[in-house]
Design goal:
single chain; TIM Barrel; alpha/beta; 17% strand
Length: 207
């Protein structure tokens, strides 16, 4: 087994955004862990956005997680990649590991958790915890009890809660066992995204 990731090394505030411009805005107000998730972009566009987002994160001392496109993550020199179940099945995991990338995986049921744990991930994401608008097809909310059960299963491995999470729900997720809380619309659809991000950081980041 590889050296494990210390939970404390991963910030509990984990915004997911769809452009390098969003990355710049959020690392500018203190985000330390951020995922770049761009759906339906062509290869050159995704590579360019990844390159620019990485530059913003490195300047700010933050960590960028590249969603799904493991080839772009390798080519652009990223340190982290996140794979959903379909992408996990198709990815060249040996190539990802040879390049030293850390890996997060999505899970939503027991079978997916078994598949995820089998690849020795660096964190496991569980969700959707609550109903969410971020998926093309609505998935049943899995709830906080399942989150607690997942934490018992993964033990010291960092557990990320995702799906329909606002700041109040984030606190409940952390109390239920999550180490990291992913957020999309509660930041990106807020009238003052930077201000909302500051509220999240103040509320859930350890002193």
């Amino acid at each position: 087994m590889r050296n494990s990731v210390n939970v404390r090394a991963l910030d509990p505030f984990y915004p997911i955004v769809d452009s390098a411009a969003w990355v710049a805005r959020l690392v500018g107000v203190g985000a330390r862990l951020i995922q770049l998730r761009i759906k339906d972009a062509d290869g050159p566009t995704f590579a360019r956005e990844t390159r620019v987002a990485l530059a913003h994160c490195r300047k700010a001392g933050a960590t960028l997680v590249v969603n799904d496109d493991w080839r772009a993550a390798i080519d652009e020199g990223a340190e982290w990649v996140h794979l959903g179940q379909a992408d996990l099945a198709a990815a060249d995991l040996a190539a990802i590991r040879r390049k030293g990338l850390r890996l997060g995986v999505s899970t939503s049921d027991e079978a997916e958790l078994e598949r995820g744990l089998a690849v020795d991930p660096d964190y496991v994401a569980y969700g959707p915890v609550f109903p969410t608008i971020s998926k093309d097809q609505a998935a049943a909310a899995l709830g906080l009890e399942g989150l607690t059960r997942w934490k018992r299963r993964v033990g010291p491995l960092p557990l990320c809660a995702i799906g329909g999470i606002d700041l109040d729900r984030a606190k409940r997720c952390l109390a239920a066992g999550a180490d990291i809380v992913a957020v999309i619309s509660d930041i990106t659809l807020d009238a003052d995204p930077e201000g909302r991000a500051r509220q999240w950081i103040a509320a859930i980041r350890p002193a």
